[in-house]
Design a protein that fits this description.
The protein has about 280 residues and is mainly alpha-helical. The protein has twelve helices and two strands; from the N terminus they run αααααβααβααααα. A two-stranded antiparallel sheet has the order 1-2. Helix 4 crosses helix 9, helix 7 crosses helix 8 and helix 9 crosses helix 10.
């Protein structure tokens, strides 16, 4: 009561303010606005503002560094990942994964010819059993299934535990190869471009045209980030998982009306093709 009096607000005033705020929230919700859409708005405004402030040259150099790094990562991740898989790091990942499966999945230590794993029915049945024993969420199983099946051994004799460990090790090491190659290339390219820009900045335009170009590139970057967010949301929604259902409810995917997040997620901007490729 003392705090209310000092602030000059009565309980009635507080109730009215609360009701007004609640009406505003309900109005925003009814118009298709939600907190996921807020993330999209923040990303778009932030990257557009950064592009406008930095100008076209610096922003273009940043985008170029990212694009070149991604290209080099795609070109070299197989070689780097293979080297990691054959190193002590790969051996540690494989042995740890195999031991974990052996300790938690009964029957996973039986020796089976690798050719048997090439049967889609056998491979999917084995993986479904392992998933259930390890309590792996359903929304993770589908993409994980595709990655594991694609990398199962084709020759020799393996236990289910060692076959899955072999496959997961290749996937993990390939991911390490991609991320490490991207980071190293990006850092090196950024340093080189920063040095070049430092010596050449006196001759570069920094006026209105550069600002507008920076804004345009910033918007393109924002769209790319929003696309990645939408791809993740699309994956969860299409999987029918609890997370996907929550996203669908928040963004009102099954209701009429427009929403920023709803448009990005419901409009298939190549999401299905990417997920099919990953499978």
């Amino acid at each position: 009561m003392l705090i209310i009096k000092k602030a000059g607000l009565s309980k009635v005033d507080l109730q009215l303010n609360w009701k007004e705020n609640q009406k505003m929230i309900n109005a925003l919700s009814a118009s298709g606005f939600d907190w996921i859409s807020l993330i999209y708005i923040v990303v778009i405004v932030l990257l557009a503002a950064i592009g406008l402030i930095r100008g076209g040259i610096k922003t273009a150099l940043s985008v170029a560094a990212i694009a070149i790094s991604i290209g080099l990562a795609f070109a070299l991740y197989g070689v780097i990942g293979g080297a990691v898989a054959e190193s002590s790091i790969g051996e540690q990942i494989s042995s740890s994964t195999e031991n974990y499966i052996l300790d938690n999945v009964s029957g996973s230590g039986i020796l089976i010819p690798a050719e048997v794993f090439q049967s889609e029915w056998v491979a999917n049945g084995m993986l479904s059993y392992v998933y259930s024993e390890l309590n792996i969420p359903e929304f993770v199983q589908e993409p994980l299934n595709g990655l594991i099946v694609a990398n199962l051994p084709t020759q020799g004799v393996f236990t289910p535990a060692s076959a899955i460990a072999h496959s997961l090790t290749l996937v993990t090491c390939s991911s390490i190869g991609f991320v490490s190659t991207f980071l190293v290339c990006f850092i090196v390219i950024r340093i080189v471009l920063a040095i070049v820009f430092h010596f050449a900045k006196k001759n570069l335009a920094v006026g209105a045209i550069s600002r507008i170009l920076g804004l345009a590139i910033g918007l393109v970057e924002a769209f790319a980030v929003c696309w990645v967010i939408s791809l993740v949301c699309y994956f969860f929604v299409s999987s029918g998982s609890d997370i996907g259902n929550y996203i669908a409810d928040v963004t009102k995917l099954n209701q009429d009306g427009f929403g920023i997040a709803k448009w990005f997620i419901s409009t298939d901007l190549g999401y299905s093709s990417v997920l099919s490729f990953l499978k």
